[in-house]
Write a structure and sequence with these properties.
Layout: H1 2-14, H2 16-37, H3 51-62, E1 74-80, H4 90-104, H5 112-115, H6 119-136, H7 141-151, E2 160-166, H8 177-191, E3 196-200, H9 202-207, H10 214-231, H11 234-258, H12 268-300, H13 307-315, H14 319-349, H15 357-388, H16 412-422, H17 424-439, E4 447-448, H18 460-472, E5 480-485, H19 494-506, E6 511-519, E7 525-532, H20 539-550, H21 552-559, E8 562-566, H22 568-602, H23 606-631, E9 644-645, H24 648-676, H25 681-709, H26 716-748, H27 757-762, H28 774-796
Parallel strand pairs: 4-9
Antiparallel strand pairs: 1-2, 1-3, 5-7, 5-8, 6-7
Keywords: Cell membrane, Membrane, Transmembrane, Transmembrane helix
Family: Belongs to the resistance-nodulation-cell division (RND) (TC 2.A.6) family. MmpL subfamily.
InterPro entries: MMPL_dom, Mycobact_MmpL, SSD
C-alpha cells in the first residue's frame, strides 16, 4: 500500500490540476444537488421492533386516524395570562383570540377553525361534552373532575392554556421552515406584549435545533493558531484548513442530499458530521504536511541552516525532488492516515450492528465524512501543495525556530520522554490512578433521550415545558397510552375489562390518572390515557412504566385481554434501554477490533493490548468527567444539570476509539520504524516519541479546540458531545498515549515487539512505516548522483 500511496502522492503533486478539478467539481455538484432536492432533517427518533413502537403500529391499525407521536407534524402553544390576570378576563381573552385568528389565517394548519381555539372555550366545550357521558356511565364526580383536569387545555387556576395544532404536512420532516416561521413569527410578536406565548412539540422543537456557525469559526481560528506555531509559516498552516473545509463541505452537503433517500437523518447528524470532519480533516492533513516538511529538509540536507537559508534552499529545489518528498510523505504518513481512518470507520460502521436507524444514519454520515477526509488528505492535499510549489513554507512567522527532524538538540518531547524513561513505574501508576479516580462518577450515569425538558433554558420549547409542568403538573409532559386488546374477550365483557384496566393502572405507583379516551366500534380495543406523577426525564417515570408492563401478565391471566404501552415517553424510554443494553457488547466489539487492527499494523501482541486497555481508561475517565459536570453539576459549570443523552455514550465510544487509535498509530509507528532499523527498544521509543510528539500534540490541541467550540451550541447533545470529545482527546492524547504508553513500552523493552512465530507467518505484512519505499529513496539518490556527475562533466568541458 505504501508504494501505491507514494505513486498517488507524487503524481498528484506533479499533475495537480486533474486532482484539484475533480474535488472542486464534486463539491459544486453535491452542493447544487443538495440545494435543489434536500429535505429538512427530522427531530424524531424511533427504533423498529421495540415494545412501544410495536404497540404504536398496532394502534394505527386499530385506529387509522392515530398518528406516530414521534413524527406527527404537531405542536403545542402554551399561553399564560399577565400576572394578576386569568385567561378568562375579557381583555386577555380578546388578545388571545386575536392572536389565534392570525395563526388560523396563515393557511399552514389542518382544520384550524375547529382545533386552534381559545383554551377557555375549548375547556368549557370539553366539560360540556364529557360530563354527561361519564355521569351516565356512573363515574363518580371526583373521578370526572380528575379526568377533565388531566386533558383540559386550561389550567385549574385559569392562568395558563394550551393550544394544540397540526401542520398541513404528512410528517414533521415535510414542514418547511417558512411554514413554521409563519406561525412562530406571530407567536413571538404577541410574546413581546402582555401575554407569555411559547411553543414546543415536534414541529417547534425542530426550530430550536438549528446550527449556528460560531463553533466552526472558533474551532478553525484556534486550529489556525496551532498550525501556524507548528509550521512557522502562514501559508503551510492554511493547507490543512483548506483541505478540511473542502472535505467537510462535501460531507455535510452529502448528508443534506441523503434526506432525499432516508427519513432517518435527524437534526444532529450534520452537526456531528461537521464536528468529526473538521477535526480529522485538519489532523490528517497536518500529519502529511508535517512529514512532507521533514522529507524536504532531509532531501535538502539543510537541517543546520538558519530559517531564511533553509527557505532559500527549499525554493531552489527542483520539481522531481519535491514530488519525491511528497510521495515519501504520503507513502509513510499517508499510510498511517489511511489506517487511522480505517479504525474510525470500523468503530462508526460497527454502530449499525445495534440496528437503531437514526444512530446508524449518524454513524454512517460521520463515517463518510472521515472517508472523504482520508481521500482528500492523500490526493487533494498533495495537489494543493503542488500548486504552491516552493512557496508552501513561505510567509514565515517571526519567533522560535520550528525544530528540524534531524536536529540532535533535545526537543520538549524528547525531554518529556526522557523523564518518563527514568521513572516509568511512577508515570504509569500516576496516569492510571488519575484516570481511575476521574472515572468514579460514571457509576451513577443516567441516560435519557432529548426532550423539550432537556432543551436549553430560555428557549421556547424549554419554557413551554416548564410552564406546562408548573400549571398542569409534571406528568402532563409525559403522557402514556395503553392500548388494551380485548379481541379474545366476549363482547359483553369488554367494557368491564376496560374498566379493570383503568383501575389497575390507577393502583400503580407513580400514576396520577388513567382514563379511557377512545374505543373501536365493536369494543375490541381501547386507548387509555395514563398520566404519570412525574415528568419525562424523571427516573421514577421509567420505574412506573416498568411496573405497568410487569403487571400485564396478571392482567391477561385475570381478564383474557392484554395491553401495551406507547407514546413519546415510552418510546424514548425503550430507546434508552436498548442503547444501555448495547453499551457493554459494543465496548467489547470495539476493544476486539482495536486489538486486531493494531495487531496487523504493529505485528506485536503487547502493543495492541496496552493500546486497547489505554482506550478503555480514557473512555471511563471521559464518562466520569461528563457525568460529574453535566449530570451532577459539579464545579457549577452547568446551571441546568440533566441526565446524559442516551446515545451519547455509545457514539462517544465509537468516535474516541477511532481518534485514540490515530494517535497510537502516529506515535508508535515511528517507534517501530526505529526498532526495525536496529535501534534498541528504549532508544526506538524515545526517538519515535521525539519525532511524533510535536505533531501529535498539535493534532490533539486542534481536535480539542474544534470539539470544545461546539460546547457553545444550543443543542444539548452537541454541547455535551463537544465537551466529552474534547476531554476524551485530552485524556487519551496526553495521559494515555504520551505518558502511559511510553512508560509501558520502556518497562516491556524488547518484549513490546514480541509476536509468536506461527502468528507472524499468518499475519499479512502491512507496511505502515513505509519500509518498502527504500527503493524509491535509493533510486532518487542514484538520479541525483548521476545528475551531479553530468553537471561536473559539463563544467569540465
Amino acid at each position: 500500500m505504501s508504494k501505491f500511496l507514494y505513486r498517488l502522492g507524487s503524481t498528484a503533486y506533479r499533475k495537480k490540476w486533474p486532482f484539484l478539478a475533480f474535488w472542486l467539481v464534486l463539491l459544486i455538484a453535491v452542493g447544487t444537488l443538495a440545494g435543489l432536492f434536500a429535505k429538512p432533517t427530522t427531530s424524531s427518533f424511533s427504533i423498529p421492533g421495540i415494545d412501544s413502537v410495536v404497540t404504536m403500529e398496532k394502534m394505527q391499525e386499530r385506529f387509522p386516524a392515530a398518528e406516530d407521536a414521534t413524527s406527527a407534524p404537531t405542536g403545542n402553544v402554551v399561553i399564560q395570562a399577565p400576572e394578576g390576570s386569568t385567561l378568562t378576563d375579557p381583555e386577555v381573552s380578546a388578545e388571545v383570540n386575536a392572536m389565534l385568528a392570525e395563526v388560523r389565517d396563515t393557511g399552514v394548519l389542518v382544520d384550524p377553525e375547529t382545533t386552534v381555539i381559545d383554551p377557555v372555550m375549548a375547556a368549557q366545550g370539553l366539560a360540556a361534552q364529557m360530563t354527561p357521558q361519564l355521569q351516565a356511565q356512573g363515574v363518580p364526580e371526583e373521578k370526572i373532575a380528575t379526568d377533565l383536569a388531566s386533558i383540559s387545555p386550561l389550567s385549574p387556576d385559569e392562568t395558563t392554556g394550551i393550544v394544540s395544532m397540526t401542520f398541513d404536512a404528512p410528517t414533521v420532516m415535510d414542514v418547511t421552515a417558512g411554514e413554521r416561521e409563519a406561525v412562530t413569527d406571530i407567536l413571538d410578536e404577541y410574546n413581546e406584549g402582555d401575554l407569555t406565548v411559547v411553543y414546543n412539540g415536534n414541529v417547534f422543537g425542530a426550530a430550536a435545533t438549528s446550527l449556528n456557525m460560531t463553533s466552526e469559526i472558533v474551532g478553525l481560528l484556534v486550529a489556525a493558531v496551532v498550525l501556524i506555531v507548528t509550521f512557522g509559516s502562514f501559508i503551510a498552516a492554511g493547507m490543512p484548513l483548506i483541505s478540511a473545509i473542502v472535505g467537510v463541505g462535501i460531507g455535510v452537503l452529502g448528508v443534506s442530499l441523503a434526506t432525499v433517500f432516508s427519513d432517518d437523518i435527524n437534526d444532529m447528524t450534520p452537526v456531528l458530521a461537521t464536528m468529526i470532519g473538521l477535526a480529522v480533516g485538519i489532523d490528517y492533513a497536518l500529519f502529511i504536511v508535517s512529514r512532507f516538511r521533514n522529507e524536504l529538509i532531509t532531501q535538502s540536507g539543510a537541517n543546520d541552516l538558519e530559517p531564511k537559508e533553509l527557505a532559500q534552499r527549499l525554493r531552489t529545489m527542483d520539481l522531481a525532488t519535491r514530488s519525491h518528498a511528497m510521495g515519501m510523505a504520503v507513502g509513510t504518513a499517508g499510510s498511517a492516515v489511511v489506517f487511522a481512518g480505517i479504525t474510525v470507520l470500523i468503530a462508526l460502521v460497527a454502530l449499525s450492528i445495534i440496528n437503531i436507524p437514526f444512530l446508524t444514519a449518524m454513524a454512517l454520515a460521520a463515517g463518510v465524512t472521515v472517508f472523504l477526509a482520508v481521500l482528500i488528505a492523500v490526493s487533494f492535499l498533495p495537489a494543493l501543495l503542488g500548486l504552491l510549489g516552493t512557496r508552501v513554507f513561505a510567509a514565515r512567522v517571526p519567533g522560535p525556530k520550528v525544530p528540524d527532524p534531524e536536529d540532535e538538540r533535545p526537543t520538549m518531547g524528547l525531554q518529556w520522554v526522557r523523564r518518563i524513561r527514568k521513572r516509568p513505574v511512577t508515570h504509569l501508576l500516576v496516569g492510571v490512578i488519575l484516570l481511575g479516580i476521574i472515572a468514579i462518577p460514571a457509576a451513577g450515569m443516567r441516560l435519557a433521550m432529548p426532550t423539550d425538558g432537556t432543551a436549553t433554558p430560555g428557549t421556547a420549547p424549554r419554557e413551554a415545558y416548564d410552564m406546562t409542568a408548573e400549571a398542569f403538573g409534571p406528568g402532563r409532559n409525559a403522557p402514556m397510552i395503553a392500548l388494551v386488546d380485548a379481541v379474545e374477550v366476549p363482547e359483553q365483557e369488554r367494557p368491564l375489562v376496560f374498566g379493570q384496566a383503568v383501575e389497575q393502572f390507577l393502583g400503580t405507583e407513580g400514576v396520577a390518572n388513567a382514563q379511557i379516551t377512545q374505543t373501536t366500534e365493536n369494543l375490541d380495543t381501547a386507548q387509555i390515557l395514563i398520566t404519570p406523577e412525574f415528568d419525562a426525564i424523571d427516573e421514577r417515570t421509567s420505574e412506573t412504566l416498568s411496573q405497568l408492563r410487569a403487571d400485564v401478565t396478571d392482567f391477561e391471566d385475570t381478564t383474557g385481554a392484554t395491553y401495551g404501552i406507547t407514546g413519546v415517553t415510552p418510546i424514548y424510554d425503550d430507546i434508552s434501554e436498548r442503547l444501555s443494553d448495547a453499551l457493554l457488547p459494543y465496548i467489547g466489539i470495539v476493544l476486539v477490533l482495536a486489538f486486531i487492527v493494531l495487531l496487523l499494523v504493529f505485528r506485536s501482541i503487547w502493543v495492541p493490548l496496552i493500546a486497547a486497555l489505554g482506550f478503555g481508561l480514557s473512555v471511563a475517565a471521559t464518562f466520569g468527567a461528563t457525568v460529574a459536570i453535566f449530570q451532577e453539576g459539579w464545579l457549577g459549570i452547568i446551571s441546568d444539570p440533566q441526565p446524559i443523552l442516551s446515545f451519547l455514550p455509545i457514539m462517544l465510544i465509537g468516535l474516541v476509539f477511532g481518534l485514540a487509535m490515530d494517535y497510537q498509530i502516529f506515535l508508535v509507528t515511528r517507534m517501530r520504524e526505529g526498532f526495525t532499523k536496529g535501534k534498541t527498544a528504549g532508544n526506538a521509543t524515545s526517538n519515535g516519541f521525539k519525532h511524533g510528539a510535536r505533531v501529535v500534540t498539535a493534532a490533539a490541541l486542534i481536535m480539542i479546540s474544534v470539539f470544545a467550540a461546539f460546547i457553545a451550541q444550543d443543542m444539548s447533545f452537541i454541547k455535551t458531545m463537544g465537551f466529552a470529545l474534547a476531554i476524551a482527546i485530552f485524556f487519551d492524547a496526553f495521559i494515555v498515549r504520551m505518558t502511559i504508553i511510553p512508560a509501558t513500552m520502556f518497562l516491556l523493552g524488547d518484549r513490546a515487539w514480541w509476536l509468536p512465530r506461527w502468528l507472524a507467518r499468518i499475519l499479512p505484512n502491512i507496511d505502515v512505516e513505509g519500509e518498502a519505499l527504500g527503493e524509491y529513496d535509493e533510486q532518487r539518490t542514484r538520479e541525483l548522483r548521476d545528475h551531479q556527475k553530468e553537471s561536473v562533466g559539463v563544467g569540465a568541458s
